[in-house]
Design brief:
12% strand; 8-stranded mixed sheet; 28 helices; alpha/beta; globular; 5-stranded parallel sheet; single chain
Length: 643
């Protein structure tokens, strides 16, 4: 047989043909054949110094053909770096975690570590970060060349932080500030402080006792004394100034972290003339009076309040349009307006281009609104609670949920917030049933759990085959949990129906609307097992404010108590608005939750959690990071009052 001769076919450059047998081969297929032939023949004809692999698998295959291990490893690191430059950290991870790089040659160890930290943090890979952090110490970055030292230190700090070791991350940056004279001290100090704020008290105390070196000792003492128990923000300002006097040569004393600088100077920027504008007549009078009473009670109980300078004036917004009142107040010597409570009035205020006097609105603008500079928003937002329910569900690994929500505009907002948060974090709302109080709740529950569909299917089968069949309805099996948004009288009917319709094994989550605010075991036994969120005023241990208010003032429990707590927090916020606005990590432990501010000036709250047992709410512990198990029925503590 004559030899096969390759001959180009000019009229069709996409194909080639054999002299005796025509074969159509795509160019990409031909490239793969040639690459495979090169690989099968060894790498003698491939120069790894110049070769660029297109995929991680191709790079690993090429490296495996190289006899010199160090050369092969250097090639893999070069390709991993190239993948990182392209933003493909997943491909870089495949190479960096490969068996071929499990034991890098000594000259390549630092390079591999640097690339690994970059991809681990870019991919938010906690398990990889923990593995890397276990082999690191805060001073390791000093071994890198001068031009890579800052990059190595920052990646090292990022890796420690991702591995839930903020203390080592802070120590890394403290060392960087000492070794890199070109670094921006304000940025480094702000980051060190945010990391130290995450260190548990016990670990911070131990580290402070064992610290070696002037810089580390100073930082740890500062963190420890500022967070001392029962220290209010005014005392913190004094503590910070005293620390600066005691550590005059310390870098942080010369360039305070931004948050501490604001706290130290807060007294100078505190409003002295405050107008509290709430409705005291009409349909919102009860809410307005509760907020007023809470605001004034917190003010008079605040030992740090300078009552010689602070003047609080009360205005009734039910007597005239709020916008008119605001314009009048803006011509007077007013530093801050607290109000309005009415949603329409807040929207009207937000329509102004600029606010001549800052205002702390006691409600929220619609989602997506752009408030003018100087307008802040605070209230008992149902959307906040919906987002917290979604976060807890997902933290527990409960990703597919069914939802019950009442009809109406309020329910629309709750559903939107819950749906957005679940979707953004990879959760799924399988179905939402909206209901009215007068609806047949049995039918609503049967529809939610898929019982109605199951029955209809059985009826259809009977009709098709023309005979009766034995049938036991089944609920849908793809559900992890139920979110029940319902007031107590309705929720007490829904919860037993879940068990009746074969959903008794599903955890049920609710917002604070489910709880009237005071224990009632005989009435709330039908809520047993329900997990809900509520404010510290209701679920926490008794605070001084709550203990005194309960004894001396009526109407500080239930919904009125929640509004009283909101008024108390409005006083605390009035002193700290610049701090919360300028420092992303700043927060306040308030009566309505841990308060923090969004870039748009809206206050968001993180509340406490409880579970009904024997008809009474019992506190649930804080979630630990990466916890994904279902809430254990017995892991609770009794609710006694304010936290």
């Amino acid at each position: 047989m004559p030899p096969l001769v390759w001959r180009h076919k000019p009229n069709n450059p996409e194909y080639i043909e054999l002299a005796m047998i025509k074969i159509r081969i795509h160019k990409r297929a031909l490239a793969s054949v040639i690459a495979a032939a090169l690989l099968s023949a060894g790498c003698a004809s491939v120069n790894l110094d110049s070769h660029i692999a297109q995929t991680a698998d191709q790079a690993l295959e090429m490296a495996s053909r190289e006899d010199n291990v160090e050369t092969a490893q250097a090639y893999l690191l070069r390709i991993a770096s190239r993948f990182q430059d392209q933003g493909d950290h997943a491909a870089a991870r495949t190479l960096l975690q490969s068996e071929q790089l499990a034991q890098p040659a000594p000259p390549l160890e630092n390079q591999k570590l640097l690339l690994s930290m970059a991809s681990a943090t870019a991919l938010d890979d906690k398990s990889w970060a923990r593995e890397l952090a276990g082999k690191l110490s805060p001073s390791d970055f000093i071994d890198y060349p001068a031009n890579l030292m800052a990059r190595a230190a920052n990646l090292q700090a990022d890796t420690f932080a991702l591995a839930d070791d903020p203390l080592s991350a802070a120590m890394t940056l403290i060392l960087l500030a000492q070794t890199d004279s070109t670094a921006d001290p304000q940025k480094i100090h702000d980051r060190v402080w945010s990391l130290l704020a995450r260190v548990p008290d016990s670990q911070l105390d131990s580290a402070s006792a064992d610290a070696i070196g002037y810089e580390a000792q100073g930082w740890l003492e500062l963190a420890r004394i500022v967070r001392a128990p029962d220290t209010n923000i005014d005392e913190q300002g004094r503590i910070i100034r005293d620390w600066q006097n005691n550590w005059p040569g310390h870098p942080a004393a010369q360039v305070l972290p931004s948050e501490l600088r604001l706290i130290a100077n807060l007294a100078a920027s505190r409003p002295e003339e405050i107008a509290l504008a709430v409705p005291l007549k009409g349909p919102l009078a009860t809410a307005g009076k509760a907020i007023r009473d809470g605001f004034l009670a917190a003010y008079y109980l605040d030992d740090a309040a300078n009552r010689g300078k602070t003047d609080i004036r009360i205005f009734d917004t039910s007597s005239k349009p709020f916008i008119e009142l605001y314009r009048e107040l803006s011509t007077q010597d007013i530093d801050l307006v607290v109000g309005p409570l009415e949603k329409d009035a807040l929207a009207e205020l937000a329509s102004m281009n600029t606010l001549p006097v800052p205002a702390l609105g006691l409600n929220y603008l619609p989602a997506g609104s752009q408030p003018p500079e100087g307008l802040y928003q605070f209230g008992l937002s149902a959307e906040d609670e919906a987002r917290q329910i979604a976060d807890r569900l997902l933290a527990k690994g409960l990703r597919q949920v069914l939802v019950l929500i009442p009809q109406g505009e309020w329910g629309d907002r709750v559903e939107q917030a819950l749906r957005q948060r679940m979707t953004a974090s990879g959760g799924v709302i399988l179905d939402v049933e909206r209901f009215f109080r007068e609806d047949n709740l049995r039918a609503v529950t049967a529809d939610l759990l898929g019982i109605t569909v199951s029955r209809d299917r059985a009826i259809q089968v009977e009709s098709t085959i023309g005979m009766d069949i034995e049938f036991e309805p089944r609920r849908r099996q793809d559900v992890d949990a139920i979110v029940m948004v319902a007031e107590p009288t309705i929720a007490r009917q829904f919860n037993p129906l879940f068990a009746f319709y074969f959903g008794g094994d599903l955890p049920v989550y609710s917002p604070s609307i489910i709880y009237e605010g005071t224990p009632s075991p005989s009435r709330d036994r039908d809520l047993n097992g329900v997990i809900f969120t509520d404010i510290p005023w209701v679920l926490g241990d008794g605070s001084e404010l709550r203990n005194k208010a309960t004894k001396l003032m009526p109407g500080t429990s239930g919904q009125a108590g929640r509004l009283f707590a909101m008024g108390a927090d409005a006083w605390q916020l009035s002193k700290r608005l610049p701090l919360l606005r300028q420092i992303n990590s700043a927060s306040i432990n308030g009566q309505t939750g841990v308060l923090a501010m969004t870039p748009e000036g809206a206050i968001h709250r993180d509340q406490l959690w409880a579970q009904f047992r024997n008809g009474a709410p019992e506190r649930l512990p804080e979630l630990v990071p990466d916890e994904t198990n279902i809430i254990p029925r017995g892991e609770v503590v009794p609710v006694t009052g304010q936290n």
